[in-house]
Amino acid sequence: MAMHLGQLELTRQDAQRLIGRALARLGLPAASCIVPLVGAGTTSHVLRVGPDLLARFPLTGEDAGQERASLTVEHAAMEEFARCSPVPAPRPVVIGEGDATYPLPFSVQTWVEGEIATPTSVARSGAFAADLADLIRALRAVDPRGRTFTGEGRGGSLPDHDPWIAECLDRSEGLLPVPELRTLWKRLRGLPHESADVMSHTDLIPGNLLVDDQHLVGVLDTGGFRPADPALDLVAAWHLLEDDSRDVLRSRLDVPELDWRRGAAWAFAQAIGLVWYYEQTNPVMSALGRSTLRRLLGAGEDLRG
Which domains does the chain carry? Predict the structure, then answer.
């Protein structure tokens, strides 16, 4: 079932042809085995390409030039992220071109080994929480070189997201405890942004983190690496961790009280749209939203300030 209106179809045969053409430009052989990774992305068709590569084809879009420009920015961000990350992360290989069958450019990047985290798989692991804190610290140490938040998406002003969250709350009637969630958002939305922007992954959800033996071993979807509210990457505390392990992350990063509560606000802003939007089309993402909102509602006095 398509996750989005106007979603582009991509057959394995089309993917193989387009990826082969892109690799040929680099003098690389075509991959003999291309495997779609069903459910691996909410914005892309994701395919494993042989043992060492991965391809991401946008699910939606109409303007090839605009998509190519976006992918160019993403590839630069991926390279910058990989240089500073304490664990492996994808590196860009090539931007492939579409054709009459699939019209948009796409990304080919390196494969990173590891098991995808879930909202519960490392929830009580102090070791994982410490690794996650070390990742966030390493990202924050990168010089933003004068860059600041661009004003698009999460990571700037919380009240800017009021219209979307109001829609999500309305659509969540019958699915979630909406009165309690309205009260929580009212409490969180006005928290001031007082800390300077820092470099951030910007989407630290379970599906973008790889684990092995309760340790963080890789990070995915790094093309959004950019300056943002330092609280933004703290969404991971609510998407992945229960109370004790959240305390490990918070203590290891020495998070100020205000930033901690803003991190909860960003987690709310992300999670509230997942339950209703993906209820039928992506149960994994819908379940993530439920899990995160459960943790936020359960925090009680910790988020009252």
Answer: 12-110 (3.30.200.20), 115-303 (3.90.1200.10)
